[in-house]
Please model this.
Amino acid sequence: MKTWIPDHRNFAYLSWKQVEALPRAQTLLILPTAAIEQHGHHLPLATDTLINNLLLGHALERIAPELPIYALPPICYGKSNEHLGFPGTLSVSAQTFLAVVRDLGASIASARFVKVVLYNTHGGNTSLVDVCARDLRAEFGLRTFTLFGAAGAPFSDVSPQERTYGFHAGEIETSLLLHGVPELVHIDEFTSNYIARTTDADLLKPEGSCANFAWLTRDIAPSGVLGDPVGSTAEKGERWVGEAAERIANALLAMYQFEPRHGA
Ligand SMILES: [Zn+2]
Model:
């Protein structure tokens, strides 16, 4: 898989003697979680994994080289059963995902590292990542953090409709890939479907509301796209990668420096 992680930030490029020499109480380890799943007619299966690596790699380039902050190899397979029925989707169950992260947490704790970031770029993993972060804290005493997607970057030119319901293979993901891996984007095969409209008065929402309906992509989107890639450009992608990298780098530095407050 293509990578933007600088070699000196790649944990798996270290020898065990180099790992042993790290300041283990301070070192921040980042475990990326993503997916291999259909992304419509126009984007590759690895989209979420590539975006994770692209954004994280650019964020790590902004961090002072002397700080002990490392990216672990990603968990490329995620909980993607919303996209089953589309050939190429490779999904693991919630139980498997939780077990893999738990076992990696056990390995990290046994090496006496303390600080771990779960950096997730696949929506189907989000609730599991929250569970993992709490459980790794409770079971192993790890100081765990979660970080998602573009870390709140504004994506300034995106319409409210696309910002709210461009869940999958829409303008944002397509622009990021047009910047990072343009050779993998089929720009003559764009399709569009929306799961809901921001103008709808419906009480039930697809997610993120107090009353939601569970959805499968095939119920809503014959092409596999949930959003609209029309309007995607490499220029937007480049700008958004920069905005996201800045926010991700700031979040990682805050995690590196984090000390919990006790009492008032
Ligand atoms: Zn995606």
The two ends are 47 Å apart (CA to CA). The pocket of zinc ion is lined by residues 39, 47-48, 168, 173 (CB under 6 Å). The chain has one domain: 7-257.
